[in-house]
Amino acid sequence: MELRQRMDKLKQKQKGFTLVELIVVIAIIGILAGVMLPRYFGFTDDAREQAAMSEARVLKSLYDMDYSTNGTWKDIDGKSTVTLNGSSSTFSGTISCPDTPDGSFTFVHTNSWSIACTIDGKLTSTKP
């Protein structure tokens, strides 16, 4: 019985965490945060870039379709709402075309990603 009484007394005395245990837990949480936060921000940057690329692809398709219908490149410089082939599309950014449009343009998305579209339709992104 005496062993049981000792065990009960020990259980009553231990009522919390030691300072060392708390410091170890805080250190582990800090290490995990230090590893995961850069990855998280990388994922959000990739998502923003893909959103800008997606809108630029839609814009390129509309622009090409308008050219095939009319035979000329329409000036869409400085616009965020574009009317091509009688339908209007609004984009999250502005479009820049050269003085003599040849089918190339630069689309600057509102999240600062810049997408350049060349004459042959290749899209390239530039980080903000």
Automatic annotation (TrEMBL):
Compartments reported by the entry: Membrane
Main location: membrane
Keywords: Membrane, Methylation, Transmembrane, Transmembrane helix
Keyword Transmembrane: yes
Signal peptide: none
Short name of any one Pfam family annotated for the protein: N_methyl
Gene Ontology process terms (BP): protein secretion by the type II secretion system
Record-annotated membrane-spanning stretches: 20-41
Protein origin, superkingdom: Bacteria
This protein's GO CC annotations: membrane; type II protein secretion system complex
Coiled-coil annotated spans: none
InterPro entries: Bac_GSPG_pilin (IPR000983), N_methyl_site (IPR012902), Pilin-like (IPR045584)
Topology class, membrane: Single-pass membrane protein
Protein name: Type IV pilus assembly protein PilA
Species for this entry: Desulfosporosinus hippei DSM 8344
